[in-house]
Amino acid sequence: MEALIAWIEKGKPFFNKVAANKYLKSIRDGFISAMPIVIFSSIFLLIAYVPNIWGFTWPAEIEAILTKPYNYSMGILALVVSATTAKHFTDALNRDMPRNNQINFISTMIAAMVGFLILTSDPISTDTASGFSNAYMGSKGLITAFISAFVVGGFYKFCIGHNVTIKMPEQVPPNISQTFKDIIPFGASVTFFWIFDLFFRNAFGFCFAEGVIRVFQPIFTAADGYIGLAIIYGAMSLFWFVGVHGPSIVEPAISAALMTGMTENLAAVQAGQHATHVLALSTQYFVVCAGGTGATLMACALFAFLSKSKEMKAVGRASIIPVLFNVNEPFLFGAPIILNPVFFIPMIFAPICNVWLFKIFVDVLGMNGLIYTLPWTTPSPLGIILGSGVAPMAIVFTVIMLAMDAAIYYPFFRVYDKQMCDQEAENLDEEAIAAKAAKMTDAFQGKASASSVAEAAENSAASAAAEAAPAEAVPSAAEGEFASLNGKKVLVLCQGGGTSGLLANALAKAAQEHGIDLETAAGAYGAHLDIMGDFDLVIMAPQVASYLDDLRKDADRLGVAAAATQGRQYIALTRDGEASLRFVKEQLGK
Questions:
Q1: Are 72 and 132 in contact (CB under 8 A)?
Q2: Residue 494 annotated in active site
Q3: What 3-state DSSP class applies to 124?
Q4: For 156-211, what is each residue's pLDDT tens digit?
Q5: In sequence order, which residues have a C-beta less than 8 Å from that of residue 539 and are 6 or more positions away?
Q6: Which helix (H) or strand (E) element contains residue 83?
Q7: What b/e sequence results for 303-324 when a residue is b if at least 16 CB atoms lie within 10 Å of its CB, and e otherwise?
Q8: Angle at alpha carbon of residue 41, lines to 253 and 398, rounded to 5°
Q9: Which of 23, 163, 527, 580 makes the best surface tag, with the fewest CB within 10 Å?
Q10: Active-site hit among 159, 289, 300, 494
Q11: What is this structure's pTM?
Q12: Could you please report the per-residue DSSP string of 48-73?
């Protein structure tokens, strides 16, 4: 097993490069930027349709009012994602552009939206039946949104990089000059979309967005099968096991399928039909990642409540609350689960078994797939139940799934618990032997002389007096040590903004204890560029450490220090306030 893990770990540099790929990162970050739309719109769906379970149905006019925010938020998701993806892709391109010749992300966002509309909508005419088609503005148009963003970015990089722009005299205000600078790349990209759309429609008789769906539909169907689900979620856990953030690699490839599955499940339920899609966003959040990648909720519970090892029990109890809310990095690195040969099998196969069990419930027992999206930090059992519209079958599934996860992890947990207990016993034996040796040494040395005793008593009295003195009378060495941190600002970044809060809170608490005016904040990588210039130091949590090179390019441009942490180091910093302050001081001193 260890040889297999070592062989897999050799591929870590390659996996890190894949995770740091600017196209994949732009898709992921663009999609994450639009997540408020998904979560916000689902709230109105819950209000509109969950009461149906108890036989209550809103009048048609009230239902229309309740679903309007959904239709005008989730209904234009792809249009929004075309802009957010273009923004993040522009940021990636600008890292390699001269500082005095950057691409205007506002312009690329607008161009991507225009290009997306051209590729998805019919020509506008006096006929009220034509115009902006909404068939592909929602989740069905996500792949087209990504393509439009990348095409626009390519045109802008070529034009700006080769100075194919309209240059204005120096006397013209910069905002006006920027407008003229963007005209040629904007016009070139929109013209390309227009001509391409004309040829494509004439050749095939339908729009490009529909063509994309037809091409990818077989892939989506295969991905929703038992083998496809196993490959997708087995790979996600495998990447995480070797220390690479698996969702960063896997999610961009399936993001369109995840949202399409959710949308079609909802439409099926509203039409009184069976919602059959298993590959959906809420399934990933709450079924596959129950407690986080690796389905670690029940594993953490085993650590917390059944461990004989003191260390394992402490790790489990310290991690159980974050893991309950699907933030499992404290457990993954604290146990550790990552790169621990004992847990290789359960971490890979527990998520696969979860999604297979869910598919059996959907395909064989007739349960509907999940139809509502909640925040990913919703506890898994609650997410499954609410995501299904409080369906009774979902409650049964949740109970069986949690019992199955506990059964999968239990034998491996017992093996590791025995190993840790043996190690702790060995450590105690070593301490006992050392203590016995010390006593024997004292016996050979004899009793202390009277003068030594008097000296010891004097020192003891002095120590007692020092302890009795008012605290303010003795200056704190810690405050002096960290005085240079006064007025500093630290931003901690992780994948979704959850794990980063652990270190940000530890720093804030330690700073308060030592009277240090240190401001801390937590955020998600990908949404940091607009705020990082306000900070003195940006720290990356382990799951985004592979992006350090890109972050340093941004940080150098803004005059900000940047640092990355690894595995157990990060967890140790979250638990030791003074150590975290020293880490910040060290990074700012470089």
A1: no
A2: yes
A3: coil
A4: 999 999 988 888 777 677 777 778 889 999 999 999 999 999 999 999 999 999 99
A5: 490, 491, 492, 493, 503, 562, 563, 564, 565, 583, 584, 587
A6: helix 77-94
A7: bbeebebeebbebbebbbebbb
A8: 70
A9: 163
A10: 494
A11: 0.78
A12: HHGGGGGT----HHHHHHHHHHHHTT
